[in-house]
């Protein structure tokens, strides 16, 4: 009876409509016609994806909620959010392309005279509950209302840290259009977005908005918001092409061969926004040598080394191409030290000779201009171990041609 009362209390604190809505009617019929929907669920490229870390769920939970290890997964001081975001984005980008990382996977892209907002999460928690769930580790750089007009909001998938109901409800009262993967439109309509403002795409489908071409491209992940996860909404990465520039947003994904195919068909890119955080560094108790494990979330999230390799595969490393790491720094979602993704990405990009932007939340930059490269997280992070670092190569090895990062050896 006590457990029932606790559950009832929790459900009363649920944000009304927070779970969203399941697809139905013609939307569900379209889902069933998708070549990527089989056996009642959407299928990942390369086969089923494991969505649990290595070891037992109980062991993982013990580590995640351990009071001694939890502090390292949050900053020990105030995250230095950029203070002049509003004034900076009031001026048009000199080169025609400017990116502003708002934290986690939220990015404002100003591209060839249009404004695209990826995975906007302005809420305090990425959760259906108002009292529980991962809470922001830094404030948003500016209020959503101060952002100004947005031509299109792009959603990668329907997890709470990418599809935020309070943010969508606020944007529903504007004139913006929404580009979403197949099935996700059901959530948005449930929250007040009219059907005529939705562009709902399957993988490899394209829509044109203003002078931009948006294409939903494959990713290796999963979906779901409710207690009953039906896997009836698709997940996607996105290509946005203007008259002069091309950009890519990975959403959430494990590393897979499809990056090369996306790069060949849609690249090269002036900038890629790549997920590099919330990987697992969890090893079961009987695993003593701390070598990489094949089950430690590689199917659905990438490590920083894999993110850099994805950038290379996508032809983001072509002359002028810049990597913007996303999906880190804002929420405590995994077991690694809070700032480890930033530090590891910096190392992996330098090793690969790739240009990487490391802005503070809210700090705009133009990929063709001066890149923010200061490791700002070091002043507020707990100590970071560097298990991915390897001895420097010999002279002969350094002079040998190299094409790919050694992903297995980097962790």
What does this protein look like?
The protein is α/β, with parallel strands linked by helices. The protein has one domain (22-410): Metallo-beta-lactamase, Chain A (4-Layer Sandwich). The chain is 20% helix and 16% strand. The protein contains ten helices and 15 strands. It has helices spanning 2-12, 25-33, 57-64, 85-89, 165-172, 185-190, 258-266, 304-313, 340-352, 395-399; strands at 37-38, 41-42, 97-103, 106-111, 114-118, 152-154, 177-181, 198-201, 206-209, 212-217, 237-241, 246-249, 271-275, 322-326, 364-365. Helix 7 packs parallel to helix 8 and helix 8 packs across helix 9. The chain is globular, with a radius of gyration of 21 Å. Residues 1-12, 283-295 and 394-404 have low confidence and may be disordered.
């Amino acid at each position: 009876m006590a457990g029932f009362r606790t559950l009832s209390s929790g459900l009363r604190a649920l944000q009304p409509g927070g779970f969203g809505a399941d697809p139905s009617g013609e939307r569900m019929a379209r889902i069933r016609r998708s070549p990527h929907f089989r056996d009642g669920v959407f299928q990942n490229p390369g086969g089923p994806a494991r969505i649990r870390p290595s070891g037992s769920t109980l062991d993982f939970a013990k580590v995640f909620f351990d009071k001694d290890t939890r502090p390292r997964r949050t900053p020990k001081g105030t995250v230095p959010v950029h203070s002049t975001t509003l004034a900076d984005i009031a001026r048009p980008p000199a080169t025609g392309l400017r990116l502003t990382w708002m934290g986690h996977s939220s990015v404002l892209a100003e591209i060839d005279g249009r404004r695209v907002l990826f995975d906007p999460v302005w809420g305090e928690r990425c959760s259906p509950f108002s009292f529980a769930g991962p809470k922001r580790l830094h404030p948003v750089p500016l209020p959503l209302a101060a952002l100004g007009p947005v031509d299109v909001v792009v959603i990668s998938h329907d997890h709470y840290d990418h599809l935020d109901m309070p943010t969508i409800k606020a944007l529903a009262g504007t004139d913006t259009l929404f580009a979403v993967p197949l099935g996700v439109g059901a959530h948005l309509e449930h929250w007040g977005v009219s059907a005529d403002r939705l562009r709902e795409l399957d993988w490899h489908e394209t829509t044109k908005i203003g002078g931009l071409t948006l294409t939903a491209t494959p990713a290796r992940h999963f979906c779901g918001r409710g207690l009953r996860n039906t896997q009836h909404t698709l997940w996607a990465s996105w290509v946005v092409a203007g008259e002069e520039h091309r950009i890519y947003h990975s959403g959430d994904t494990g590393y897979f061969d499809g990056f090369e195919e996306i790069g060949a068909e849609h690249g090269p890119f002036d900038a890629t926004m790549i997920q590099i955080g919330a990987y697992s560094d969890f090893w079961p108790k009987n695993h003593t040598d701390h070598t990489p494990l094949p089950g430690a979330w590689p199917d659905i999230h990438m490590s920083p080394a894999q993110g850099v390799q994805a950038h290379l595969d996508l032809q983001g490393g072509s002359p002028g191409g810049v990597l913007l790491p996303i999906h880190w720094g804002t929420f405590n979602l995994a077991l690694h030290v809070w700032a480890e993704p930033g530090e590891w990405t910096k190392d992996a990009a330098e090793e690969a000779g790739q240009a990487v932007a490391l802005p503070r939340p809210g700090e705009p930059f133009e990929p063709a201009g001066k890149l923010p490269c200061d490791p700002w997280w070091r002043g507020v992070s707990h100590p970071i171990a560097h298990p991915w670092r390897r001895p420097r190569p010999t002279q002969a090895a350094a002079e040998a041609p190299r094409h790919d990062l050694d992903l297995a050896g980097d962790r």
